[in-house]
């Protein structure tokens, strides 16, 4: 991976820029530029045919000054130590900007989960926990689902941890199945949170959401609920989504100029977000190249897939009509692309504010696990809306007060909170 697309290099560049703006001491920078701890794991797993396959796994704890580390576990063939480091760092800022008492962590295993049977996935999940259980826990580090993992897999991991420790410990993992310690509203949380921030942006820009259109990259959990929120809550139209086709090993953009029928597309999509092309075409959708989503004549772009997708090249394709870029994914925009977006006056809702709905509801799940008392879905989503709206206001106000880009403002809010926590604990 070249330097400009290395996620950790990108995360450090973003941090360095704001550290300069804040005039942070060198000693503070040395703590925050790198993870406090990281674990590299070799995981032998018996496959269905009786053979043993060894998987590479990671768990990175970037900073826990504000509370236990928090962050998802990815099962992805392109996972590297640097992507996990970057994601852990972004989780520190995400928890701080959302003002929840947690730090930043992240995990990953180098694997395409679609190549594993259900039993193999379960054995890999349990092997991961057996390898890392001493270093996670409700007061240490709380994993959650991410790309390539789901609620069932979190249920297996929670069960393995509870079995090893000899006590039922639902709070060790969030994103669990409802009925197995999970929270109502968790599935919708990240995608809905994206839309809450888009709604607030439209208020400031005096845009009527019912007259807007959006293009979304991705069609996994985040993208699907962002689309649902955009259509049903804001009253806008989503004219295209992109997805990764596992059979073709290629990405495509599925388009309908008068707006997609979300329920229909979901009905022809598998558990990994891969849409059935033939059925889509039969229903009047057009199929275009995977990177065409970014070139659409829309008001809002929502990258909700992997990092580095809005880069120095792809940013040139963005249509002049685009007013808002809402980062549903983690780290979708490179520093080179940021400069172009600034120059063009496109309003960017930065990732660790925009997609903080997931970790906020994971925090709510942990609170419910601790209380052993569970809220209704309406209560969860109302609390989420309140938290996201407050977080958005703090970043927007900082942006206006300091006359800085929204990403820089989000970093300012987050870094200030983390540094204060380190000072209060005597780390500095």
TrEMBL record:
Substrate binds at residues 70, 94, 362. GO terms for biological process: L-glutamate catabolic process. SUPFAM superfamilies: Aminoacid dehydrogenase-like, N-terminal domain, NAD(P)-binding Rossmann-fold domains. CDD domains: NAD_bind_1_Glu_DH (cd01076). The record marks 146 as: Important for catalysis. Belongs to the Glu/Leu/Phe/Val dehydrogenases family. This is Glutamate dehydrogenase. It comes from Candidatus Brevifilum fermentans.
């Amino acid at each position: 991976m070249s330097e400009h697309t290395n996620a950790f290099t990108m995360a450090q560049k973003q941090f360095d820029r704001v550290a300069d703006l804040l005039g942070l001491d060198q000693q503070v920078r040395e703590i925050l530029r790198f993870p406090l701890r990281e674990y590299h794991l070799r995981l032998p797993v018996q496959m269905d045919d009786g053979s043993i396959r060894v998987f590479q796994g990671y768990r990175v704890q970037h900073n826990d000054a504000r509370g236990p580390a928090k962050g998802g576990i990815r099962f992805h063939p392109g996972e590297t130590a640097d992507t996990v480091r970057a994601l852990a760092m972004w989780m520190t800022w995400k928890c701080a900007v959302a003002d929840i008492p947690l730090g930043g962590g992240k995990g990953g295993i180098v694997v395409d989960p679609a190549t594993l049977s259900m039993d193999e996935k379960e054995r890999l999940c349990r092997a991961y926990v057996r390898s890392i259980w001493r270093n996670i826990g409700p007061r240490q580090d709380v994993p959650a689902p991410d790309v390539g993992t789901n609620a069932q897999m979190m249920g297996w991991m929670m069960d393995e941890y509870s079995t090893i420790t000899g006590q039922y410990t639902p709070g060790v993992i969030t994103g669990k199945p409802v009925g197995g310690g999970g929270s109502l509203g968790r599935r919708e949380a990240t995608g809905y949170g994206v839309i809450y921030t888009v709604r607030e942006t439209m208020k400031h820009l005096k845009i009527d959401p019912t007259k807007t259109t959006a293009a979304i990259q991705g069609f996994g959990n985040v993208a699907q609920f962002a689309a649902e929120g955009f259509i049903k809550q804001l009253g806008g139209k989503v004219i295209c989504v992109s997805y990764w086709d596992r059979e073709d090993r290629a990405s495509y953009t599925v388009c309908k100029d008068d707006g997609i029928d979300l329920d229909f597309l979901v009905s022809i999509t598998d558990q990994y977000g891969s849409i059935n092309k033939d059925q889509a075409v039969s229903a009047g959708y057009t199929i275009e190249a995977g990177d065409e989503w970014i070139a659409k004549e829309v008001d809002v772009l929502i990258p909700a897939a992997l990092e580095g997708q809005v880069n120095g090249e792809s940013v040139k394709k963005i249509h002049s009509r685009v007013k808002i870029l809402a980062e549903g994914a983690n780290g979708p925009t490179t520093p080179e692309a940021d400069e172009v977006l600034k120059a063009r006056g496109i309003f960017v809702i930065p990732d660790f504010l925009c997609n903080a709905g997931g970790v906020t509801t994971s925090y709510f799940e942990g609170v419910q696990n601790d209380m052993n008392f569970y809220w209704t879905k309406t209560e969860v989503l109302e609390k989420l809306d309140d938290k996201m709206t407050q977080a958005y206001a703090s970043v927007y106000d900082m942006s206006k007060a300091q006359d800085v880009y929204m990403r820089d403002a989000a970093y300012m809010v987050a870094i200030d909170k983390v540094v204060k926590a380190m000072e209060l604990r005597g780390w500095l």
